[in-house]
Structure to design on (678 residues):
């Protein structure tokens, strides 16, 4: 499904799942010389020097638009999950058990004969209900029911921490409803964007033809979809504007919302999604809701019905017959991201089971694959990084003692999660039945939505995990002031029990420092130690921070990711600050660790400092297609891997010392032009 929920967590990278199980790197600990390209001068292109060998050994195949170390590890995890899931699918399990649910859902995803025989039958009833709509007054409750089913029309609603009262959950309304995700696809007029927009409209028409419409009817339906989605996009905030938490916090009573946005029957809407009697809500982007209401109130009902049917088609496409799956891939996979070949069915099936029953699968995963020793070593690493960040805060010349004291309080209050949750999710109320693959996806959407909605007005559960244990990623959540490192990422090349401190501090150590620094980046710094959106900075310190952060904005804005495309320094600022801070903090922690346990050069002659920076670069090794580069530059708050290395290291003085970088080298940056923040 293409619904985007604006949760406030700040992850290390996009979760990577589309990978090749045959691509495995044997890791015996330490720096792997085969990963390097020693024909390149590290002072001119450190990324190519550190990762060139890996990139050559892992060329993009037709299945991928991007393939990196995150993907490699995620694919290894998926192969492990396949073994667990297929084992359950091969046995007869007691109805209602997790084993039955996992096994049956997987078997339905794999049953191409039934999927193709069913065709569009699983969504026919929903499309007919939309066709039968003849009373505009029904729309508010109708689109709410669609939201619960996972279709995402017009705008979104979720329940999360109240950013001004972070111990309590609140309902949040936010912009959405346009399937391309980023508003710029509807508004910008460069040749590449126009081409994508035209191909998207053609894709919508083809999907309607698969439901039985003739070419002219389908073309009209697609034009209607573009009319609605373009209006929604115009009213939406940009990805950069969404990074301002204060501007996206507008708490009001439901009665006030009804006055400000009268075109929607909010009592009917909230009752239909399970929030009957709701008293207050945070409206993230009021202009987007006003435009949605204007559409629902005044746009031709036939146009709206075509739009609503499209939302069903778009959400369901991957769970129907091959014709729908292939057309969906042709646009979202090929056109938008540059993939040339669809993933194997088993990979898609495993991903679905993982998405629907994530913690149930995760519990099996950690029992079999996650060693207790890894968690123990991580606990020590996190403590060391926390101490190093505290020392760096104390030593900041540009920050007042008053703000330092509050920053140290926040650092000490970090809630650390490692490996897996202490309490596992209960899936007993989720029914997996033998009717259709899509029907089970709808039930899963209902189950997940009801689970979330039930939290409204209740205390925040700070022990709840926002990623499954098998996820190859990490995150910081500002409203709970937590850092989380799932078991999935605690493997080579990120964390290696066979590597020394120089490598582990350069890889997982920087990941830890990265997530900690998110608590003090341009967004995270606006939340206090309890997770409340509250200004705890002196005016002068805030001014100093913004000036210093602007150095990174300007630097990344000038990076050419393609000949005709620059990076977006404002969109990626938080992640760039976190990379910068993570490197500084982890390197300082390594120096303290080596004071107790000195390290020498390795067998290849690399010093501990050199191993640290090589390990960091290896984390971001990868290859990307041009389409993928354009997509993520427009939409992703993370810089591309090449620039997380070549864009960040010129601001790290210790890297200059480690590799003898000097004036005249391509990556040399005069000291007065380097960032100096954490």
């Amino acid at each position: 499904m293409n619904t985007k929920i604006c949760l406030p967590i700040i992850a290390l990278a996009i979760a990577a799942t589309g990978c090749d199980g045959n691509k495995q790197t044997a890791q015996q600990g330490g720096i792997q010389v085969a990963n390097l390209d020693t024909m390149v001068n590290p002072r001119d292109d450190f990324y190519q020097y550190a990762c060139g060998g890996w990139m050559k050994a892992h060329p993009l195949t037709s299945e991928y638009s991007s393939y990196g170390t995150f993907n490699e590890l995620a694919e290894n995890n998926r192969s492990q999950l396949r073994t667990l899931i297929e084992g359950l699918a091969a046995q007869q399990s007691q109805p209602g058990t997790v084993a039955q649910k996992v096994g049956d859902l997987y078997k339905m995803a794999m049953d191409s004969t039934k999927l193709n025989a069913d065709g569009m039958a699983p969504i026919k009833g929903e499309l007919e209900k939309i066709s039968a709509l003849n009373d505009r007054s029904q729309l508010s409750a109708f689109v709410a029911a669609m939201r619960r089913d996972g279709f995402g029309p017009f705008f979104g609603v979720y329940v999360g921490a109240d950013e001004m009262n972070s111990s309590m959950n609140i309902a949040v309304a936010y912009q959405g409803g346009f399937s391309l995700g980023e508003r710029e696809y509807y508004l910008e007029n460069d040749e590449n964007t126009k081409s994508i927009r035209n191909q998207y409209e053609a894709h919508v028409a083809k999907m309607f033809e698969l439901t039985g419409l003739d070419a002219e009817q389908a073309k009209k339906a697609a034009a209607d979809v573009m009319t609605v989605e373009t209006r929604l996009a115009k009213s939406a905030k940009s990805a950069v504007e969404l990074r301002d938490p204060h501007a996206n916090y507008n708490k009001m009573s439901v009665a006030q919302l009804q006055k400000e946005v009268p075109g929607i029957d909010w009592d009917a809407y909230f009752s239909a999604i399970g929030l009957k009697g709701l008293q207050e809500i945070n409206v993230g982007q009021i202009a987007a809701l006003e435009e949605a209401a204007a559409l629902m109130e005044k746009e031709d009902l036939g146009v709206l019905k075509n739009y609503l049917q499209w939302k069903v088609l778009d959400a369901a496409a991957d769970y129907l017959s091959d014709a729908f799956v292939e057309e969906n891939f042709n646009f979202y996979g090929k056109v938008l991201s540059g993939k040339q070949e669809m993933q194997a069915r088993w990979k898609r099936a495993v991903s679905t089971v993982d998405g629907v029953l994530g913690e149930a699968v995760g519990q099996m995963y950690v029992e079999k694959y996650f060693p207790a020793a890894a968690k123990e070593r991580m606990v020590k690493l996190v403590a060391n990084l926390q101490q190093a960040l505290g020392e760096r805060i104390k030593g900041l010349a540009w920050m007042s003692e008053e703000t330092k004291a509050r920053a140290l309080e926040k650092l000490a209050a970090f809630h650390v999660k490692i490996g897996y949750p202490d309490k596992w999710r209960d899936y007993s109320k989720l029914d997996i039945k033998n009717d259709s693959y899509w029907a089970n996806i709808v039930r899963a959407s209902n189950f997940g939505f009801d689970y979330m909605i039930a939290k409204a007005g209740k205390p925040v559960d700070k022990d709840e995990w926002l990623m499954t244990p098998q996820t190859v990623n990490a995150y910081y959540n500002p409203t709970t002031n937590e850092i989380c490192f799932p078991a999935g990422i605690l493997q080579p090349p990120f964390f290696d029990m066979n590597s020394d401190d120089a490598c582990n501090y350069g890889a997982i150590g920087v990941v830890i420092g990265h997530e900690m620094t998110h608590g003090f980046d341009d967004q995270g710094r606006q939340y206090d130690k309890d997770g409340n959106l509250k200004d705890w900075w002196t005016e002068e310190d805030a001014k100093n921070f913004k000036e210093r952060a602007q150095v990174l904005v300007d630097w990344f804005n000038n990076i050419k990711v393609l000949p005709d495309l620059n990076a977006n320094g404002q969109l990626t600022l938080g992640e760039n600050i976190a990379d910068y801070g993570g490197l500084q903090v982890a390197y300082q922690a390594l120096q303290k660790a080596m004071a107790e346990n000195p390290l020498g050069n390795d067998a290849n002659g690399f010093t501990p400092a050199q191993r640290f920076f090589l390990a960091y670069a290896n984390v971001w090794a990868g290859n990307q297609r041009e389409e993928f580069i354009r997509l993520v530059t427009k939409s992703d708050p993370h810089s591309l891997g090449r620039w997380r290395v070549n864009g960040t290291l010129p601001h790290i003085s210790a890297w200059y010392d480690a590799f003898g970088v000097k004036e005249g080298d391509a990556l040399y940056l005069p000291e007065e032009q380097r960032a100096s923040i954490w």
About this structure: The first strand starts at residue 10 and ends at 11. The chain is about 50% helix and 10% strand. Confidence is low (pLDDT under 50) at residues 1-7, 15-27.
